[in-house]
Amino acid sequence: MPIVSCVILSIPATSANLGPGFDCIGVALTLDSKFKFTRLESGNFSITVKGLEAERVKTDSSNLSYQAFIKLYKHIQQKPPPVDIEITLGIPLARGLGSSATAIVGGLVGANELAGKPLNQFQLMELAISMEGHPDNVVPALIGGCRLAVTSQTSWKICDVPWHKNIIPIVAIPDFEISTEDARKVLPTQVSRADTIFNTAHLGLLLRGLATGRSDWLKTALQDKLHQPYRKQLIAGYDTVNSAAIDVGAYGMVISGAGPTLLALTDMEHSADVVAAIAATWQQYGIIASVQPLSIDQQGVKIISQTQIQ
Ligand code: HSE
To answer: Do residues 96 and 141 both lie within one domain?
Structure first.
């Protein structure tokens, strides 16, 4: 069997939670980072990082992609080969767009390709979830689309969530960061029955709203009581930006993942107005944001090129 000596992967950004789907739903978006894994003749490992905020990524053995690379080889009980990892970042770090999920998925898939594909997609997904701790970023990063992930006693149930073609996701990426750890610390450990029922009902409505594109359903469905009321204190101007987006035609706005990126859903007709309203309103709070409409990435990890030794 030919041995893979080099593989280049593209991995999409993801937006987790979508309001009421805390820790269980996420969508892959058309923004990506690239990971190149090259088998070396000798040595141990080397890592270079280019692109957005590259200087902030560690290039020692604590690098998350390298950790994931090693994890896969440990899992298959093989010694990892010497490897050069080149990362080209297109997804900003610590903004709620799944940059750590891309690093984990990149390392696992890169190792799996170099090792001759010992694991199938489902096994890769389980390893990725165990590394990240929750499924909502790694699952869509790996397989694309909008996905609901539900744990059962024996394994994960992964469900495709249809996304109506008229629903446009707009991301507003601000010039400040929030770590997932900090954003999880502000959450209560217990919630009321009323808030639980609220989110259960809203997530059900969200699934139907996303499938049908019905604006009246989406306008209600994007609300949440489990995480956003606590996290919005970490994001200056949240309520005002939310109202500004809705006033010009957004169905609603949510915190993307653990934030601080905001995700608005709208239709094509209102897309430009929503972009302008979010950017202008946040600027009143001194926050400069890159605001752009994206599309849904349907594929997840893409192998851009692969070199084999016969
Ligand atoms: N569901 C996670 C959270 C996503 O909101 O904390 C961030 O990784």
So the answer is: yes
